[in-house]
Specification:
Blueprint (H helix, E strand, L loop, with lengths): L6 H19 L6 H9 L1
């Protein structure tokens, strides 16, 4: 089977990355993960 550009898959990946970026840049979210790490230790 010859290679074909998987438009649907790449569109899905782009949407996921956009969602992750919005989550990561939401107010108060950027430091939430490091804060959780410091709470563990």
């Amino acid at each position: 089977m010859p290679w074909a550009y998987d438009t649907e898959r790449y569109a899905w990946v782009a949407r996921q990355r956009q969602t992750e970026q919005q989550y990561a840049t939401a107010p108060g979210r950027r430091m939430e993960f490091p804060r959780r790490l410091s709470d563990i230790g």
